[in-house]
Amino acid sequence: MVVAYLIALVDVGKEHEAAKAVSAIKGVEEVLITYGRWDLVIKVNADTLNELDVIITKIRSVPEIEITETLVGM
Q1: What is the pLDDT of residues 16-59, one digit of tens each?
Q2: CB atoms within 10 A of CB 70
Q3: Helices vs strands, H then E, count in the chain
Q4: CA–CA gap between residue 3 and residue 11 (Å, rounded)
Q5: How far apart are CA 38 and CA 34, in angstroms?
Q6: How confident is the model over 9-20, as pLDDT tens digits?
Q7: Per residue in 6-42, is it b (16+ CB within 10 Å) or e — as a string?
Q8: How remote is the C-alpha of 42 from its chain's centroid?
Q9: In contact, 29 and 8? CB cutoff 8 Å
């Protein structure tokens, strides 16, 4: 199993909408709205790196999300 955390910057005032959309994506285990430089912390579980790539691509396609950074656990 591959565990990754994404930190995301979203459009101003759109944190809850983005969190709701991301939460609906299969493989997303948890979404936290945070305050500070990053707006969301997203925990993702995937069986393979290829599956992780698909999930990350879906997360990045959420319209409210501007920037992401991915941290893959080993």
Answers
A1: 999 999 999 999 999 999 999 999 999 999 999 999 999 999 99
A2: 16
A3: 2, 4
A4: 26
A5: 7
A6: 999 999 999 999
A7: bbbbbeeebbeebbebbeebebbeebeeeeeebbbeb
A8: 4
A9: no
